[in-house]
């Protein structure tokens, strides 16, 4: 499957009052627009609009005869502006918050004449942006499915992103080192200890776990821009959805957490569920059981497939 990048161009004034020429890129998969229900998927930190097909980051979930079946749905995915996938980078990244990205995605939907969605799904940072979108437009979607994320950045997440910021702003392999620290936030002690068992890699003269971390640092360095990572980290630090507005969301809400998530802990997502329940929202809570932590939403496909199949 090969789908092209499309662009929507407009001027946008950020919350910080900077006017920026935006070129919002997106990809469409499956059925032609307006011939089928539309599912918008918001990508996570280092993801992009290429959600399905050979190199699709969620090809286990999205595709022909997959749970998100492109024979049934039109799947739309925007690139978070400045992620570099469309060669567009942002230097003044601190001008943007998740609220700005939500406004930009909503403008994109409006330019495409999409007034309502069958489902809005977002993982991690993409889920944070999705929360900001539904808070701004409570009738936007029939189903709202935020995965491994919350409607705001809590202290713990902010603290991890602060360490990321320190690493990204120093000169010695900034992106590689930040990714190595981030991998520890995306996994758990048990995930690493069970997998690597203190095994030593004779060739590399280091623990297998260290080799794996270095591999991931270098792999991201090869495929990602430092400016883009700084922006994404800054956005993660600035998810700040208006709590009053989320109580007005009309969609059926399905919160999906990972029981071992160190980044967006399940206990916070459960608290959000309780709060929405008290407000009589149509809300459900699902939990992925995994030793792998936050990244389980990219690993535990059997569980995720079952959960999402029962929702759609
Ligand atoms: C969510 C979004 O919006 S998109 C972003 C999602 N994608 C990413 O985060 C990309 C980075 N990838 C990852 O973090 C992980 O690969 C995951 C989460 C996708 C899967 O995790 P795991 O199942 O633990 O995979 P793991 O990290 O061991 O291996 C991934 C690849 O790295 C390779 N690899 C891992 N460690 C090493 C090493 N030490 N030396 C060489 N290669 C290695 C594996 O062989 C594998 O290669 P393959 O994909 O060609 O088969
Ligand atoms: N590991 C994933 C998810 C982080 O939330 C990424 O790099 O995008």
From TrEMBL:
<feature type="domain" description="AB hydrolase-1">
    <location>
        <begin position="37"/>
        <end position="139"/>
    </location>
</feature>
<dbReference type="GO" id="GO:0009086">
    <property type="term" value="P:methionine biosynthetic process"/>
</dbReference>
<dbReference type="InterPro" id="IPR029058">
    <property type="entry name" value="AB_hydrolase_fold"/>
</dbReference>
<dbReference type="InterPro" id="IPR000073">
    <property type="entry name" value="AB_hydrolase_1"/>
</dbReference>
<dbReference type="GO" id="GO:0004414">
    <property type="term" value="F:homoserine O-acetyltransferase activity"/>
</dbReference>
<dbReference type="InterPro" id="IPR008220">
    <property type="entry name" value="HAT_MetX-like"/>
</dbReference>
<protein>
    <submittedName>
        <fullName>Homoserine O-acetyltransferase</fullName>
        <ecNumber>2.3.1.31</ecNumber>
    </submittedName>
</protein>
<keyword id="KW-0012">Acyltransferase</keyword>
<keyword id="KW-0808">Transferase</keyword>
<dbReference type="Pfam" id="PF00561">
    <property type="entry name" value="Abhydrolase_1"/>
</dbReference>
<dbReference type="GO" id="GO:0009092">
    <property type="term" value="P:homoserine metabolic process"/>
</dbReference>
């Amino acid at each position: 499957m090969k789908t092209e990048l499309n662009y929507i161009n407009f001027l946008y004034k950020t919350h910080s009052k900077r006017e920026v020429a935006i070129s919002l890129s997106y990809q469409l998969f499956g059925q032609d627009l307006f011939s089928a229900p539309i599912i918008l998927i918001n990508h996570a930190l280092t993801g992009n609009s290429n959600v399905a097909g050979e190199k699709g980051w969620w090809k286990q979930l999205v595709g022909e005869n997959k749970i998100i079946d492109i024979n049934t749905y039109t799947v739309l995915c925007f690139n978070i502006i400045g992620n570099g996938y469309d060669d567009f980078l942002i230097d003044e990244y601190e001008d943007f918050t998740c609220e700005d990205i939500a406004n930009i995605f909503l403008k994109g939907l409006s330019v495409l004449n999409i007034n309502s969605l069958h489902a809005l799904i977002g993982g991690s940072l993409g889920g944070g942006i999705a929360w900001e979108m539904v808070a701004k437009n409570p009738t936007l979607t029939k189903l709202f499915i935020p995965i491994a994320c919350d409607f705001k950045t809590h202290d713990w997440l902010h603290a991890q992103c602060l360490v990321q910021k320190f690493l990204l702003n120093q000169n010695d392999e900034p992106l590689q080192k930040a990714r190595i620290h981030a991998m520890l936030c995306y996994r758990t002690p048990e995930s690493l200890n069970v997998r690597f068992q203190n095994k030593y890699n004779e060739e590399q003269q280091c623990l297998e776990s260290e080799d794996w971390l270095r591999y991931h640092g270098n792999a991201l360095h090869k495929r990602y821009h430092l400016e883009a990572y700084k922006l994404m980290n800054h956005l993660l630090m600035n998810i700040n959805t208006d709590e009053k507005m989320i109580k007005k969301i009309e969609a059926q809400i399905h919160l999906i957490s990972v029981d071992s998530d160190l980044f967006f802990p399940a206990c916070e997502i459960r608290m959000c569920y309780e709060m929405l329940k008290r407000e009589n929202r149509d809300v459900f809570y699902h939990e992925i059981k995994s030793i792998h932590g936050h990244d389980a939403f990219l690993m535990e496909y059997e569980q995720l497939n079952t959960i999402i199949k029962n929702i759609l």
